[in-house]
Protein 1
Amino acid sequence: MTRLVEITVSDEVRERACAGEEGARQLIYAAVAPATFALIRRLVGSRSASEDVFQDTMMILFERLTEFRREAPLGAWLRQIAISRSLMYLRSPWRRVLLCLETDERDTPAPARATTAALAPEAIDLERALATLAPTARAVLWMYEVEGYSHAEIAASFGRSVSFSKSQLARAHQKLRAWFEPQGRPTCTLS
Amino acid sequence: MHTELEQQQITRLLRKLPDDAARPYDWHEFQRRARAVPAAAVQVAGLRALATGIVTTLAVLATAIRFGASPHPPQPPGEAVMADEAPAAGGGDLFRAAEREDRAAQYWLERLPREPALVQVGTRAAVETLEDHIAQVDDLLTAERAGSAPAERLQLLQQERAQLVNSLVRVRYAETLADAAR
């Protein structure tokens, strides 16, 4: 799957979408939806909450498409919206309560459940290890390691200090390493 | 070193994780949900407004009870005339101001029923204690006036009486608020 930040849409399609043409909007949706949802899923965790955040993100995309200045690929702009909405979800006290109640979904990561056969053993284990992380630590880890955000950018996104970002990342790494240690998980080692 | 290597391997694995399993719903489902959002948003907005109203009312009531918001007792008859009088110099002015405040509070207190509809034992005890203290200060004031005590002494006693009456007003005001909230 193409990373969200790399997805571009032609000016012609974008202008038609801005004019409200449904076909053009459908094309944009088809291009960006999978990567957007995958990113949100990584940050938010539960499927139902991810769908809510995804819906919100895509609605904002179409509402504000006229404000897009083409300074970066459309995917990069959308990534900012998706991350901002996901973090808003994670910060909300009411959502935190819901997140705790949805333990069944958090305990078993959906991607591993759905495609166990297609994944390499270490990837399955990594999916499981990710699911054991606290949502905030997982979001920081993903933003830093995969999306390439700096600690300063992560701190700004969370409205916290740089040391918050560093400590969350260190904790996430520690937990993942413990998961892969031979005595902790005898069935799996890193290649 | 070993830890660093492991970390790099984890990072590499994270970047290679496939996302294909996390498929979103299609365009038609997105449109269906988008149409459903305004109705839900109206409902949520209504509930939020209601909740905000309730919380604000409770907060105002709690603050009034906790900090004894000033009951602003109405001016007793003739008070307006007294207020317009030219102020006397120094302590005499303070003394008269304390007396005026005292009379205004007393006037407000007298308009209240002797006891609220529902008597709270703790509050009633506080009211009675304050009323007893005021009565003692009143006796002392009468005695001092009869004995031609110095003005400073009378002023101190009057101030003490005003403070006690003020406390009584606050307790009674909280009592009436609590009574009205029931």
Note: Chain B touches chain A at residues 3, 6-7, 9-11, 13-25, 27, 30, 33-34, 37 (CB under 8 Å).
Protein 2
Amino acid sequence: MAGSSYEKVDISQAMVVEPTASADWLVVAPIIITLLGGSICLMNRKRTVIQPLLGISFLVLLVVSNIYLLRHVIEQGVVTMVMGRWLPPFGIAFTVDKIGALFCLVASVVALAGAVYGMADIGKSQRRYGFYPFLLFLLTGVSGAFLTGDVFNLYVWFEVLLIASFGLIILGSEKVQIDGAVKYAVLNLIATTLFLAATGYLYGVFGTLNMADLAVKAADYPVGAPLLTIGGLFILAFGMKAAAFPVYFWLPASYHTPNIVVSAVFAGLLTKVGVYALLRIVVMVLPMVRADFAEVVAWMAALTMLIGALGALAQSDLRRMLGFLVVSGIGSMFVGVALGTAEALSGAILYAVHSIVVMTALYFAVGIMGRVSGGFEMRRLGGLYRYDHAFSAVFFILFIAISGLPPFSGFWPKVILVDASLETGYGWLAFALLFSGFLTTVAVGRVWLHVFWRGGREGTPDGVLDVPGAAARLAFVPADQRVMLGSLVVLVVLVMYLGLMPEPVLAIAQDGAAGLTDPARYIGSVFGEGG
Amino acid sequence: MDVALAVTVGLFFTVAIYLLLSRKIVRILLGVAILGNAVNMLIFNNGRLTREIPPFIDVDLMTPDRLTANPLPQALVLTAIVISFSLFAFLLVLGYRAYQELGTDDTTEMRTAEPREAPNPPQGY
């Protein structure tokens, strides 16, 4: 209860004055780098030429720091840093385990790719409106959410990334963007408010908001109305953030409206923060609640996957189709939460990594396609295969990856999730996974058929090539726009790497999943040496 | 006191959800504001309402020797108020801008991003 005493806290530890080990600063480095970088970009808001360079150099710094953070976590295990030596559970602790570090790294790589892509995609006026500062602040929120070990602090990071994403989504202020932004903003704000309500109840029941402390206390707490209310609210709130059935409608309504690079970064990062929060709070802190809600989450997962795939089938605008593919992927990650075994969770983590990279790459690719062929409407596109073979190959790789077919990144997480579902006795969930994969294959296969193989716009007879400017190849993309191809290629190489060499990332995911089902190391890190 | 505040929170939630279910943006925004306040009071109530003794600890003690007010919910609520206030301000501007640009504040009429007559995807090759 609120106000209870904590005998186990050794007060003498709070008097330690020796400085924090310098490697531990890596835990807060992502926040410092992005906040600092964002502020400096903001100061240079009107210098549209140097602003991208500033933004990109800070993001490079972020990637490097996150690589070291991941290495540090792999060597040291879970690392905790406490603000101002206020020992847990009193101070705000930043606790990073392998999942947090891995997600942080992938998020920063994707954001870096987005910043480079944005050099060509984002015009001068939009730079003045603050694309780069918002991107960096978005990363502050995302990294903070991945690193924090405090539930209320998680709420604060959610709001940080939310306000930055508001800025990004209305960049350009077109009619369509404002329409999308209204739905995005209102529904996301309601979701975070529900999250806050659940946090309030959590505090009322346990008198603490430190995740490790909560995990210890919740283990002995009887499962009853209070815990189930809290769990239900968390699942609803994070489901809404992650765009899971039945609260996913904001995503297809808004993700096709902003600049394509903004859509790409959103599709990569934002929904996964919701999934991560679900893994951290519902799976790790409140495992008995997860077990009670397993059936509900399983249905949410299956319906999200199927509705996402069916929605993708029903779209003619490629950007809107991608929005539904994001939703479908969220369903697969929810399978891991529904099953709750270490194997299933490792599958969900691997799927999240795959989804971050592949969805961003798909938006990048569609963006380039829209630029060279002048639209996103499937009926009016065509002949792209003759237009450029290499670019078509990139698309083909991404299509295979998103469908979950071998040999690229979507295959392994799906194998693990199907295997885990069969082992836990959820045969129908395995079927839903495979069936949604089949529907996704049909959806992207149709894009391939119409946009790449057909000679021109709809109605072009077979064997005729009718593309305006077909002689021009992608190599003739203006030189200042070739960076877009560069960042796309980097992500595609990552997709191939994740598919052909899944072992290193899988090992991290498995270890992270083991830490979720048995948080002893997490708790030990917070209450052990205290930093 | 707890019960009275709990009932008030419940009423706030009722009003907020009623307004959120409306089709007009203005009413939805009012609902969002009331929802935020409902949650703030909920946190406050969850910190337990005690007599108004400030949480000071005597010099020679490690813990307070009597029941004091709980300072943490106040910190949480203060943070939440600041955040929800700024986001609400943004939403108000966005709602006004949407009304100017789209010419309606009825969410069922706001179909610019998802037009009703969007073409079906190609049905055959």
Note: The first helix of chain B runs from residue 2 to 20.
Protein 3
Amino acid sequence: MRNIETAELPGTLFVQAQNCRGCRSCQLACSFAKHGVFNPGKSMIVLERNLADDRTAPMIKPIGCDLCGGDPACAKACKYGAILYEAGPGRQKIVVRLLGKEGS
Amino acid sequence: MKRPTTWIVRVDLSTGVVERTPVEDALNRTYLGGCGVGWRLMADALAPGIDPLSPENVICINPGVLVGTLTPGTPKTTVITKFATIASDDGKHFIGACTTGGRYLGIALKRAGCHHLLITGKAPRPSYLRICDQSIELVDASDYWGRGIEDVTIDLVEREGPESGTIVIGTSGENLVRQALTIVDRTNSLGRGGLGAIMGAKNLKAIVVNGTGDVEVADSEAFIRASEAMRDAVMQWPRREHWIDLGLAAGWDTFKHTQYPGIWPKERWDELYGEKTRMETVEDVIGCNSCILGCRLRWQTKGGEFDGEVGFGSPFSKSATSGMLLGIEDFRKMIHFVADANSRTGIDFYTTTRMIDFVTKMYEIGRLTKEQTGGLELSRTYETYQKLYELTVNREGFGAVLADGWMRLKRDFGLDPQEYWYAGICKGVDFIYDARPSSLHPLMMTFTTRPRPHHGGSHTRTNSRNKTIEEIREQVERWGLLKETIDRIFTESDYSGKFNVGRYTRYMEDMMRVKNAVGLCTIYTYQGLLFGDDIARLYTAASGHEMTALGMAQAGERISNLAKVLNVREGFSRVDDAIPEVWFRPMESPEGRIEMEDYYHTKVLTKQDTDRILDDYYEERGWDLQTGQPTASRLEGLGLKEFVAEATS
């Protein structure tokens, strides 16, 4: 596995939390890409669950994610536009921007 | 390639004993896994003739084979039990299967290694079942008893963690109301026909599941290749964008014709309950796990006395039909009933509102007296409806009669459910659609031929109106059925129209067994997005059992037959599959007379026609035409020889 502290990563993941439908495809795709099994607990994504309205939001763990070497499984698996990937060579680290309803 | 190990977990609530055994490979191959294996386990676990509300009843919970993997949409868990509904004059109860999706439950069961969870006995006090991998225990729930579903679910998730899968009953389940169901993960309902009462009778307020294990597939590479190709293909569906915006609120334009109760003019219904009311109430669409066509809703009422009320699931179709039946013009008032049923009481909205419709009308015309209602005056007002709803939930006074369902009304007051004017009733369960506005499409047939009269994952292309014969045929062909079978299905007749609904229904039910065994949501087959060959490809890669579409359909047939055998030994036969009488009574509506017709609306169907359709169904099954029960030769052909004696005696 790459050392993400120093590795030159090939792009940026963006999280658009308001688009998340809670289907957990990102978690399943991530654990499969990393470990060859389906297990949300082994994925790099925590799905936050707000019990007030039961909305969910994917949070990507910054340590350990190597963007699957430039073709991140989570972004590919998310069909609702909650996790997006932008290739951009030369970036030094993962930038996760949370673009929720309030924006950031 | 290593086949994933699957487990049977047996929990006896009376003694607290938990047993865990692996499923034999041969059993998985024969019954596909999931609820297919579940049915086989129930054949041994469930003694014939028991009271569904007794400790002897078994709740058998089976997440599908593909649940917890990345697919286009396989979130389904199927529960098999002996249902609480009184299904006949002589007090029989059917053994059936109900299904649910959800974001958490199915995955959690798989990760905890509970591929088949069989719950028997009765907890000594109000409890919830807490499953965390191999740690399974009963936890005191006396502080939850008497509280609503939403309230308890939130508390449980806070206590047990955000990924907890939950099945929770409301107050109606605690009070053993026979039309009490359960709510899964806040968003999905489970168990029309009384699963809530069965849990209540076991002192089981909830089941909470967490797991940390892996969900594995036998051939990872083949699986992910097939799955990703299918996900990409589903994304090409031209209606997807509209669908994921509105979810279960989509489709009013079809709904208003197919589920029309015939009291108001359609234009009026449009105004009161139409697309506009849906658009202003829907907040978000929620996806079940792995689903890329999310359809469950988060909604909020705006304006009126229930301003700000929020809920999950889908309140629209239910509130629109029952709203017209009960003459309630403000849709918010009906949505409030749905919200309360889902979040607090857990009572089945359809059955409850329709029984209320029936008894208040019967009271109005003098067929039910004040003496019979225990001194309660009934009127056709919202206040009376609310009162009857509460009495039923609490099993109080006249509500105790309603809480036993349609057959009790017949037994106590001679009010025959076959007199009811909408949808139809079979085996003590009211249908959610009516074959007069809908036509006698195959799903309507399955309501009468299935052991449990509800759709439970049966939908195919034929659920949409006006599909071409080619579209219907393609779906059947891709299940790999033999040419002579397909020719029989698509032989035109003067009693069934362009295709034979009876023969088609047999295969539709077998496909349903397969979909439920693998956990595939029926929306994908209903919309023609996934086919039998797709399912076989995913199943083969996941399970490691080489299987063609036809092989899966044949396993589906085996499961259908076994399900029937379990019901035959309870005494069910062809008389119990009777077509509801109301379908033969023309609906006189402001839009004109509406009669039951064939799928393509070429002719009005008579009792003689439906008898022939039913004959064809049994014949296609290889069952006895007189009794409607499996024959020895068919059972032997399916490898079910051991059941011949009890199915044919």
Note: Chain A touches chain B through 29 residues (CB under 8 Å).
Protein 4
Amino acid sequence: MNGLVLVLPLLIPLLGAILLLGFARSLRFQRVGTVVIASLLMAAAGWLVYEVDCKGVIAIQIGDWAAPFGITLVADRLGAIMVAVSALMGLAVGIFSIADIDDDRVKKKFFPVFFVLLFGVNGAFLTGDLFNLYVWFEVMLISSFVLIGLGGKKDELEGGIKYVSLNLFSSVLFLAAVGILYGEVGTLNMADLAVKLENYPEVNLIISTSMLLLVAFCIKAAVFPFFFWLPASYHTPPAAVSAIFAGLLTKVGVYALIRSQTLIFRPIFDEVQVILIWLAIITMITGVLGAARHFEMRRILSFHIVSQIGYMVLALAFMTPLALAAAIFYVVHHIIVKTNLFLVSGIVLHKKGTSDLALVGGLYKSAPLLAALFFIPAFSLGGIPPLSGFWAKFAVVKSGLEIGEWIAVGAALAVGVLTLFSMTKIWGEAFWKAQPKPTADFTATDRPTPFVMIAPVVLLAAATLFIGLYGNGLFAFSERAAEQLFDNREYISTVLPQGGGTK
Amino acid sequence: MIEIMLALFIGLLFACGLYCLLRRSLVKLVFGLILLSQGANLLVFTAGGLLAGRPPLIAKDSIIPTAPVADPLPQAMVLTAIVIGFGLVAFFVALVHRAHEAVGTDDINSFDQTDK
């Protein structure tokens, strides 16, 4: 029974992808099947969260080889909530794709690749082994490579090159770190590593490995100075693709950072803390300044991903129970809000034929519902109470004040104001301003928005409102998850019932 | 002795790979990534410890192999990594080919449309 609840979030997308490949001829089947499979995945993820929250950490050994030799799947509260949010994003973006992804891309097997992506993401959240984490990253990456380059337009290919080459480079660093760590410690099971690295004599070697991993994960998470691939590529593919990328992929990097720093490298965290705090501060500031410069919706939003990643890394860097809870809450809130903003930009793109702020306008008048739906995630991102972003920022700031990190807290507050500036810029330009006159080479269209595009935006906006107004439940869950991370004995004893193996 | 040679060789692969990455040519970018990923593979293989002529086989009457034996895990991992790397490089070469057709040049400095 334990096994099933852990394996379902992996099996459903994998079997779904195979099923969709089997019926690749029928475009209708692809679209309807996607929604059905994504709903199943959502249900399975909900079950996983429920089980983990009630019964504590769940672990199974695939193939029945005892840890640390076997392939460990493990879910604690952090892993479970990440799976649940990614399933929700899969559902929302799956519905959105019905209208947004054209027949040509569906014929090129868009939906099977989409599910392989979710398969990889869920695998990364549920694995208990560093090498398997590498493999899951690759599963996720190669499907994201396909999705980003599927259209074959010039911009997509160019953005794809940047995305692919930097991510491949980070994979190389990841693999190198895995190799050195195995050579040194003789295990890659994360719980076993945590046990062995406590009071490890050769601290310098472990620090260098942890730095290699830190850089590898920071590239994936788009932390300064490794973020350049993100704003160069996320605005090129169709809106549905950039929405799922924006919501999930960088957050897998953040998840890997949280997991490695709280579990594997906890004994040497003091050495890393200063670096992480400063990386986070600079990430927040460069991201938000980059966004201020741009004038196209998706480019602005891409830079805001970078800036928001800074907040999550900052919360991780504080490393108190409250700060970890803030980091988890922030990740969940951010995934929902950011995906939603990209979906709204996709609707604007569909409606007007462009999402360049200089060329669109008058949406408040012509599409008041869309304006309201943009308002909720945008001002949640800016941190306006009572939306979810306010509580997320509040928790980060409060945990920073508790340990006296004044500079970081000041930067976080200032960046919040600048975030609001960008959101009001989009709001003022796209929604309030009158529709600009057609120029010589561009005339804005006014196409009606299909229901399947609005529905997921409503769903995610409702989730944002719900987290904002009844945030207690999720925050209490985040605190319980943070306790599990902070005191990792439960995680370790579930994975290693016999108290760790020997080489 | 062989460890030191391999370590030097890994360093050489990484250095050449990084040098290629820093060039402006798209083809050298591909070669750089190939060299780097081979360097990482070799690193995993070497870091796991080299032991000649001691396969991890269990004798007829015992339960565990007599120490010292070669560790099979790094070899399994490196095989996985080679396969993954092969797939990624194949995809990347195809992508580079298409991008080269679309942009029309090998010079990475011309790939600046999406950054503006």
Note: The mean pLDDT of chain B is 87.
